[in-house]
Amino acid sequence: MSATTSAKAAVRLLGYDCVVLRAVPRPERGEQVNVGAVLYCQEADFLGAAVYLDPARLRALDPDVDLELLSAALDGIRDVCAGAPCAGEAGAANLRNRFGWLSAPRSTVLQPGPIHGGLTADPGAELERLMNRMVR
């Protein structure tokens, strides 16, 4: 076995679940812009959210979109992930329940997409990779 092969064998892959967060400025039209992602990895005890708002893309769907309201909702998602006291009961729950709360379908301006799974050696880096691939 070569050194490269043994180094690859030493990497432990962890299962994760994730959702892409979608802004739907006019839910009746169904148009959406990806604005973030939430990733949960039980084995790593990791729950994280990353967000990115592109005002021009959002205004292309709705010139009157309330960016401050959307930004506040995204801040709330990050607060739940972090277990911040301002997140109330959702923020006080265990990580699995917090992810369940964040990934539950909604009919509001901010909606989670379907849950997807994957494998990673680094949940934080995977969240960044998902942001670059799906959001930015």
UniProtKB/TrEMBL annotation:
<protein>
    <submittedName>
        <fullName>DUF3037 domain-containing protein</fullName>
    </submittedName>
</protein>
<dbReference type="Pfam" id="PF11236">
    <property type="entry name" value="DUF3037"/>
</dbReference>
<dbReference type="InterPro" id="IPR021398">
    <property type="entry name" value="DUF3037"/>
</dbReference>
